[in-house]
Amino acid sequence: MKKHPLLLFFLLIFLITTSTTCENYDYEETYVPCTLTGVEVYSWDNAGAEPQVPIEQKIKKETYLLKIRLLSNAGTQPKQDITNNTYKLKDGIVKINIYKRTSEQ
């Protein structure tokens, strides 16, 4: 009977030491400034199993998908430690307006 409390004690000590140690290191995150160089807008048809480029000009409004791709010079900086870099736009994006073009216009 004395074995059980002793084993439980060692198990408790083991659990406490493993829960309080951390193998992750706190890396300082590096912010790399970049600028926005362009915007690309794509229309996609989401009617099938996967979105695809529309073959015809007509896309049902229920399956219409708009892809907005922001281009920047983020990949042109010299190579550093890639895992810790966070790219941050210098000027930022203040506002994005999307206008709906209807057939009445």
From TrEMBL:
InterPro entries: DUF5034. Keywords: Signal. Residues 1-21 form the signal peptide. Pfam families: DUF5034. This is Uncharacterized protein. It comes from Bacteroides salyersiae CL02T12C01.
